[in-house]
């Protein structure tokens, strides 16, 4: 179960058409002999998609869905650079989805469901958000036996500064050079507050471990290798088997919220059906791993005012710029690799 | 009097049409002006924001360790997303080297005159507006031109423009409607003095030829002064006619009466049979010319008064009785029994002088054409909303066929060559009847004599 795969995502953005499109997983939902096959490429794994798509297939008995899982950078490569034909692209990389739409590779789609979406969940009638997933702090309950669990970044900085021996080498966060989602979270944090850079420096001073994925961080917290994991997808933590081993903190100063989005690419051969699948996705309310737009899920505990949804729109393209990426990564490196 | 004027066009309509044409032209002009200004403003504001974006990127460039670094501000792109969800493209290049963004973004057409240029072009299947800016950066000893272009699609601008276009259309249309309303009011108020003048002239009685005294707009002053002078001349001419008729009657009748008296006296004195015959012939000729002159004057008077008919209540029975009394001497002279058969009371609207004149002519005819020792009978009855004066005699009656022509001037029946007459009598009666919306019917009664019916409506 890999949310965002290790890849040379930044290099891709520069130029890497020679790199092959790596498929991580692939399956077909629905009958084998169906008349119509809808091809979906997604960063979400099969276990996530299966329960969502089942009611949709029940309503369309003659339909099968060919579901391909790939990393966000591979999805981008497949759709943007190689122009492979898909009917729907689902990704957690909001910046890349925005770029697809901005570069004219997405079809517009309007329906009562998409028009009912709040403004922040719909860009140009091309990018549609259907989950909101917060970046959380996951702390080991064992480590915080005697200490107060930090409620925001300020308290997190204090507790790490006051107990350097305890936390040295046992804090973890995304490696923004490897993870597209980690990069998105880090850039949005940096945009929101200078506190991020102080936090990065403190974590760097404690020789923070760097990860590719939320699930690895959570596993290490459960196993006791990590005491603090910063910027972990809350929905992954919430559904972990060993939930008692850790506490999920939605930072009260601000909680960055990622929106999982779907677009219908220009190459779609069945855009009407893809549109109906979009309608189905945006009207989901079941709570599970994902926090759907209408459900409560992990966000239930957070106050609306501290939520900072990453805004869909051209602003996201700034961090995809080569120079911007280079300068951000170098600043991040100088903070966290001391 | 009732002749229909030949009508060509209408001042009011012409005013309305001209004003409407003007308003339509102005409305269309307004529409295009508003639209063009809106287009310009929309273009300028988009250019401004694109330029701000490009400049903010250019300003974020710096040289560090002999290398160019560009720290794109987040706002550089997010500001472009505030107005509308447009697509954005950008390109950063230094000298001939492409650095970042979209390499195929077209550069400014032709040679650029200044550091900031704006141009519209086509990119990736869409119309885009591009702002391009540049500055010199020095890396060590080398100076190079750093150029930043930012492009945006025009969907939102088009939408804004079409909204403004609809507003401009509404403004133009309501301007036109308001002006149309205004034009109608203006046209109506402009022609009001004309209508007022026409009404005041039409309301006047037939004898009212006073000049128009009510104030009129200066444009109408020549018309009114012409009208006044025309009425003045008409008044003069009418007075002259009236005076002439009265004068003529006096001047013709009196000498003829004198001559006739003298002739009769002479007749008594003359003994010789042939001389007596000559004098009688003379008297007869005098009678004829006296009668003719009288009737001609009567006719002139009737025509004059009928043209300017002034109506007043007339007791028809009284007039009949009075006229019969006046003609009693003449009938006695002719040994004609002039009698009144029956008078029903009847009051009509009319000119008593004209009516009396008509009656006198009728009775005169009856007396004249009766046989010696004959009779003439007059009666007044009411019949179907009309007052009818019936005059009968026991003369030869009217000739059967060409009866109709007797009302023509100077026409006389073929069977009355032996009697003095001018041929104007029935003409006068007919004209009086017509002037009063009445009618003249004549024919022969069963006994053979003439029977004339003169009828007047009651109201």
Could you characterize the architecture of this molecule?
The complex is a heterodimer of chains A (338) and B (459). Chain A is 36% helix and 20% strand. Chain A contains 13 helices and twelve strands. Chain A has helices spanning 9-14, 46-59, 72-81, 94-102, 112-115, 153-162, 164-167, 180-192, 195-205, 214-223, 234-238, 271-282, 322-336; strands at residues 25-29, 36-42, 63-69, 88-91, 122-123, 127-140, 171-174, 209-211, 228-233, 246-249, 255-263, 307-309. In chain A, α2 (46-59) links the parallel β2 and β3 (63-69). Chain A starts with 8 loop residues before the first helix and ends with a helix. Mean pLDDT of chain A is 86; it is low at 1-18. Chain B has 459 residues and is of the alpha+beta class. Chain B folds into three domains: 14-162, Beta-Lactamase, CATH 3.30.450; 207-308; 311-459, Histidine kinase-like ATPase, C-terminal domain (Heat Shock Protein 90, 2-Layer Sandwich). Chain B is 51% helix and 22% strand. Chain B has helices at residues 11-59, 74-78, 155-203, 221-269, 273-307, 316-333, 352-369, 425-435; strands at residues 61-64, 67-70, 88-94, 97-101, 117-123, 126-139, 142-153, 312-315, 337-343, 347-350, 375-383, 386-393, 439-444, 450-457. The longest helix of chain B is centred in the N-terminal third of the chain and has 49 residues, at 11-59. The A-B interface holds A 101-104, 123-124, 191, 311, 313-315, 317-319, 321-324, 326-327 and B 69-78, 80-81, 85-89, 92, 99-101, 124-126.
Give the tags.
heterodimer; A: 338 residues; D-Maltodextrin-Binding Protein, domain 2; 2 domains; 13 helices; globular; disordered N terminus; B: five-stranded mixed β-sheet; 51% helix; rod-shaped
What's the layout of helices and strands?
The complex is a heterodimer of chains A (338) and B (459).
Chain A lengths: L8 H6 L10 E5 L6 E7 L3 H14 L3 E7 L2 H10 L6 E4 L2 H9 L9 H4 L6 E2 L3 E14 L12 H10 L1 H4 L3 E4 L5 H13 L2 H11 L3 E3 L2 H10 L4 E6 H5 L7 E4 L5 E9 L7 H12 L24 E3 L12 H15 L2
Parallel strand pairs in A: 2-3, 2-4, 7-8, 7-9, 11-12
Antiparallel strand pairs in A: 1-3, 4-11, 5-6, 6-9, 6-10, 6-11
Helix pairs in contact in A: 6-9, 9-13
Chain B lengths: L10 H49 L1 E4 L2 E4 L3 H5 L9 E7 L2 E5 L15 E7 L2 E14 L2 E12 L1 H49 L17 H49 L3 H35 L4 E4 H18 L3 E7 L3 E4 L1 H18 L5 E9 L2 E8 L31 H11 L3 E6 L5 E8 L2
Parallel strand pairs in B: 9-11
Antiparallel strand pairs in B: 1-2, 3-4, 3-7, 5-6, 6-7, 8-10, 11-12, 12-14, 13-14
Helix pairs in contact in B: 1-3, 4-5, 5-8, 6-7, 7-8
